[in-house]
Inverse folding.
């Protein structure tokens, strides 16, 4: 139970950009347009969306508008269990455009490397540059200088998050996202910080008085 709560806590932290300047947020219109597909050997997973209808709810220098999301991610290492969930690194591309197939106005698009952390019916894609790699372009947002960050939230995972041998198991989900101009520390960094603080507290309790 404690491990499950730890995983859920880290998942929540990963979704919150620290000191972030938001340049774009979007929410999904309907359905489960995200498809994660693990290969038969359980060694690799792709996470994709094609022409997913979304609503851009905030964009720097612009107004709320409908858009289409395309997403293509491929795992780059083995998944690591964390309590009742786990995490895995991915790299790939995304685009938010006014037209189907990436056409029309490029609201925001780019290449990036990231970490996907999941537990139960939820998962978060968290990428912060530095140390991750993010390369953003836009027809309407003028300032895309690093540091930058990406946070995508996957909800209603069907089936719930699993690790299939060495990779994240297949699922479908809904999606929402936030893009900012400040890096987000990876969940592993939060974990190391938490373990360090716990060690200090335990050490302090064991020190003799006097």
């Amino acid at each position: 139970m404690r491990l499950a709560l730890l995983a859920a806590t880290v998942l929540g932290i990963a979704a919150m950009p620290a000191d972030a300047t938001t340049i774009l947020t979007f929410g999904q219109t309907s359905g489960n347009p995200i498809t994660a597909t693990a290969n038969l050997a359980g060694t690799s997973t792709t996470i994709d969306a094609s022409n997913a209808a979304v609503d851009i709810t905030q964009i720097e220098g612009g107004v709320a508008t409908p858009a289409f999301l395309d997403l293509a991610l491929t795992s780059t290492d083995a998944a690591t269990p964390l309590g009742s969930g786990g995490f895995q690194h991915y790299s790939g591309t995304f685009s938010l455009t006014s037209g189907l197939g990436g056409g029309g106005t490029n609201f925001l698009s780019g290449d990036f490397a990231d970490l996907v952390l999941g537990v139960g019916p939820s998962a978060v894609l968290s990428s912060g540059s530095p140390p991750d790699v993010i390369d953003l372009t836009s027809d309407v947002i003028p300032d895309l200088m690093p540091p930058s960050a990406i946070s995508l939230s996957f909800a209603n995972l069907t089936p719930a998050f699993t690790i299939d041998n060495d990779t994240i198991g297949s699922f479908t989900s809904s999606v929402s996202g936030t893009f900012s101009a400040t890096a987000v520390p990876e969940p592993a960094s939060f974990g190391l910080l938490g373990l360090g603080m716990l060690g200090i507290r335990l050490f302090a309790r064991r020190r003799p008085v006097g």
